[in-house]
Amino acid sequence: MRLWPRRAGGQLALLLILVLLVAQVITIVILAGERQGALRSASLEHVLQRVADGYTLADTTDPERQERILRALSSPTLRLSIDPAPYLTEDRVSGMTRRLAKELELPVEQVRTAMEADEDDCMPDRDEHRDRERHDDEDDEHHEYEEHRDEDDHRDDRHECPPVLGVSLALSSGQWFNARARPPAPSWLWLKATLTSVGITAVLLTLTLLLAVRRILRPMNELSLAAHAFGRGEKVRVPEKGPEDVREVTRAFNQMQDQVGRAQEDRARLLAALAHDLRTPITSMRLRVEMLPEGEDRDRLLDSLREMQHLAEATLDFIRGTTTEQHRRYDLATLLDSLCGDLQEMGLAVHCDDSPRCVLQGQPEAVKRALRNLIENAVNYGEQAEVTLATTDTEAVVTIVDQGPGILEADRERVFEPFYRLEHSRSRETGGAGLGLAIARTLIRGMGGDIRLGAGPGGQGLQVSVTLPKTR
Q1: CA distance 213 to 9
Q2: Average of per-residue pLDDT across 300-327
């Protein structure tokens, strides 16, 4: 499974979500410590205020009413009592002690405070240990072991006990006002709200980013489609829209298309003029030679003129590289079946398998011309040609297999060079200028395809594969 998106929009959205999550996790960790500390301080302030109020009421009230005041002020988290002796034997929190002494106007010696662990709540099995120690007197060593183990367990679990505030205040009557309070645990409700806010922010930012990226990259997608079409020989003008940098790229692409188009038009006019200028003197010479008396010299001159004209036209065809045919939709299977039928009527040994419908966008006449050249070569040099058509999701592949001597791997690319002909590896009954394969590949590549040569089945003969892209 691919986790990293391939598209720019998906990559930007994923990066934004990751950065947002990391930033929010760091922020939540920092805020959690500060907020929990603030809530704990606020809870402790509230408990101290209740203890101070309870002490003031108890110290100024008759002993008969003190018990009712203590019951009224006590709660599950705050236990108040008046005892002859202080609950705390020593002071452990000097800062809190000085604060209470100042608020209640008492000497520091009469105020004792401490923060300790609630051993009764965090060690529910403590009484069970003590009962077992008290009744198990048969084995002193086992009793001592249990006592030490109980103390070790108490030390190990002390850090899990909730904090309890202990306060002992001296009353004017000589007794001690003792308070044991457990500050309420800080609430984590704020974390739920924070996580909800983070989730909503992430969703909104992601949607906004995806919409923005889609809007920005839409012209780039159109430019990509236009570039593929231009590679097939089509000219598609892309509208300039989107951000300015994207507009500049689109503008440059359109200008490039215009420049290439003008260059092709200039070349076409030049070739047309060149073809006219070449044909005129050759035709004039043929007329003059044909007026000569019949003989061997006259026949040789006519053969030379025909070869010269054929070479000139083949050269012009190669230089032209493509036709002026407009791009349109066509069925390659129908075209191939019609071409094979025409060649069979001419007496060529061509076998074409039935193929499914395959609609492409391109120049059907140029495709037909290239395939005809390849099939005729297969018959001329390999006696017969087997033609098949296969399709994939992205391209159509025409395969032409002959039974000839084949082409060495080292020469399979060189045969596409202009005027290159194999001298010994294939039959030389037919001449030619060595431009047939070069023209065929030029035509096919002009539509975004390609021609590749390989060995036939079992290493016998030559296999020609012609690929043409499907319409995007």
Answers
A1: 6
A2: 69
User: What's the CA gap between 337 and 388, in Å, rounded?
Assistant: 10
For residues 249-274, give the mean pLDDT: 80
List where CATH 3.30.565.10 sits in the chain.
Answer: 326-469
3-state secondary structure of 318: helix
Rounded to whole angstroms, the Cα distance separating 419 from 432 reads 9
Q: At the topology level of CATH, where does 237-320 sit?
A: Helix Hairpins (1.10.287)
Q: Dihedral, CA atoms, 213, 216, 220, 222, nearest 10 degrees?
A: 100
| Cβ(52)–Cβ(104) below 8 Å | yes
The kind and range of the H/E element at 357 are none
Q: What average pLDDT does range 240-256 have in this prediction? A: 85
More confident residue, 310 or 85: 85
- CA torsion 437-443-446-448 (nearest 10°) is -70
Specify the residue for token string 């066509």: 330
Beta bridge partners of 390: 397
Q: Within a 10 A sphere around the Cβ of 36, how many other Cβ atoms?
A: 16
Q: What is the pLDDT of residue 307?
A: 72
| DSSP code string of 233-281 | T---PPP--SSHHHHHHHHHHHHHHHHHHHHHHHHHHHHHHHHHHHHHH
Q: In what order do the strands lie in the sheet with 111-117?
A: 78-83, 176-181, 163-170, 111-117
What percent of the residues of the chain are helix, what percent strand, and what percent coil, each to the nearest 5? 60, 15, 25
d(C-alpha 362, C-alpha 233), whole Å: 8
Q: What is the pLDDT of residues 92-143, one digit of tens each?
A: 767 888 888 888 888 888 888 887 765 555 544 444 444 444 444 444 444 4
Fold of the domain built from segment(s) 8-118+162-189 = Beta-Lactamase (3.30.450)
Superfamily of domain 326-469: Histidine kinase-like ATPase, C-terminal domain (3.30.565.10)
What Rg do the C-alpha atoms of the chain give, in angstroms?
Answer: 49
Q: How many CB atoms lie within 10 A of CB 448?
A: 21
Length of the chain: 472
* 56-73 pLDDT per residue, tens: 888 888 888 888 888 888
Q: What backbone phi and psi angles, to 5 degrees, belong to 350?
A: -125, 130
Could you give the residue ranges of the DSSP H alpha helices within 60-112?
A: 63-73, 94-104
